[in-house]
Design brief:
InterPro entries: DSBA-like_thioredoxin_dom (IPR001853), Thioredoxin-like_sf (IPR036249). This is DsbA family oxidoreductase. Pfam families: DSBA. GO terms for molecular function: oxidoreductase activity. By secondary structure, the chain is α+β, with helices and mostly antiparallel strands. Helices cover 54% and strands 11% of the residues. The strands form two sheets. A four-stranded mixed sheet has the order 2-1-5-6, sandwiched between helices. Helix 4 (98-106) runs antiparallel to helix 5. The radius of gyration is 18 Å and the shape is globular.
Length: 215
């Protein structure tokens, strides 16, 4: 089964959705799974230096500080239930995520999902600046990538056009929010649904494939 995942690295619901998906896959052993990660830049206008996180989020959501805190508290509780940490108090910067998606694109397929998770952890648990080359190179090195080569790639424009093009392509094809999952190019799951919803989607994809083989 092929699973295409559209996500952004500063989206807490993407991290929750990823956890639900992988928990569902741990329970589902019917066939080999291939995962492809796709960038979805929620706001590519953010400058390299970033913005102060809470001020940016208040403006983006159009809400007051108390309402923003309620939103953070709710999202954090949902994350805890899913088994992921979301420490919004640690986050100081709203960042442009293009560079982090370039790291994911450069990562070999066999470690790509690990790199995605490491980026999520760096941002949502440690409050690190995932728009910083040194932070991302350290993440890549820890995952097994060549430090010097990766540093040179991220300090150049390697992978930049592809990341922007993929994000634009997703929007042009009707994806308006993330996380967004596509199974075998047929079954769509929009949002960070429960493990049960993903298992149901896996079964639908399998039945659809079987029916196509029969006919």
């Amino acid at each position: 089964m092929l699973i295409d995942i559209f996500h952004d690295t500063v989206c807490p619901w993407c991290r929750i959705g990823k956890k639900h998906l992988f928990d569902a896959l741990a329970q589902w052993h019917q066939k080999t799974v291939q995962i492809r990660w796709h960038p979805y830049l929620l706001d590519n206008t953010i400058p390299a230096c970033g913005y102060e996180f809470r001020s940016f989020m208040q403006l983006r959501k159009g809400i007051q500080p108390a309402q923003l805190q309620q939103l953070f508290d709710y999202t954090q509780r949902v994350g805890e239930i899913a088994g992921v940490k979301l420490n919004f108090d640690k986050i100081s910067l709203a960042v442009n995520t293009t560079l982090s998606h370039r790291l994911i694109a450069l990562a070999p397929d066999d470690i790509k999902s690990n790199v995605v998770e490491a980026i999520y952890k760096a941002y949502f648990e440690e409050g690190l600046n995932i728009a910083d080359v040194d932070v991302l190179v350290a993440i890549g090195k820890a995952a097994g990538m060549n430090y010097t080569k990766l540093q040179n790639q991220l300090n150049s424009d390697a992978g930049l056009d592809a990341v922007v093009a993929e994000s634009t392509f997703a929007r042009l094809n009707g994806i308006t929010s993330v996380p967004f999952f596509v199974l075998d190019n047929k079954i769509r799951v929009d949002g960070s649904h429960s493990v049960e919803v993903f298992l149901q989607a896996f079964n639908r994809a399998s039945l659809l494939e079987l029916s196509q083989k029969i006919w």
